[in-house]
Amino acid sequence: MNYVDILGLFAGACVTISVIPQIVKVYKTKKVRAISLKMFGTLTFGLAVWIVYGILKSDLPIIITNSVSFCFNLTMVYFIIYYEKE
Amino acid sequence: MNYVDILGLFAGACVTISVIPQIVKVYKTKKVRAISLKMFGTLTFGLAVWIVYGILKSDLPIIITNSVSFCFNLTMVYFIIYYEKE
Q1: CB contacts, 8 Å: B52 with chain A
Q2: Keyword NAD on this protein (chains A, B) (predicted)?
């Protein structure tokens, strides 16, 4: 792994962890009305396609970071649907 | 440009356009309290690093899609700061 790969992992780490404060905020406040389900739905789908792209290009930073991002954003999709019902 | 590049552009397009419904929602409702500034701040920074990674790898789909994403998410950062004040 060279320094470019490490930069890719760092970039992916920033994008990936960025969703955590949003997950925590929604979990604490239970408020999701201002948040767009369309955004997190499309984002989660796009991340799944990024994972396929990473596999086809054998690009490890893309595969790893987008897989974790995918899980986090899927959690957001679940939270939005769950708390919107309440 | 081969089919893998096209897949990458498609993945990036999904992730990129995903923010549009959120921008529209905030613009219409002016409500940002449920939205995390930390999320969009960290995301925007991470996208900037992805652009650098794409340049170093000469990976066109990464450069193009993350540049557009960067602009959209910077708009969200501006909206959150602007409407939180009001």
Answers
A1: 7, 11
A2: no
Count of CA atoms in the C-beta half-sphere (13 A) of A49: 21
Does A29 contact B at CB distance below 8 Å? yes
pLDDT surpassing 80 at residue B1: no
Mean pLDDT of A43-47: 96
Give the residue-averaged pLDDT of B9-27: 93
Tell me whether A43 touches chain B (CB under 8 Å): yes
Residue B33 DSSP one-character state: T
Domain boundaries, chain A: 3-84
Q: What is the mean pLDDT of chain A?
A: 93
Q: Which residues contact A20 (CB under 8 A, 6 or more apart)?
A: A72, B39
Percent helix / strand / coil, chain A, rounded to 5: 85, 0, 15
Query: In the CATH scheme, what is the code of domain A3-84?
Result: 1.20.1280.290
For residue B78, the distance in angstroms to the closest alpha carbon of chain A comes to 16
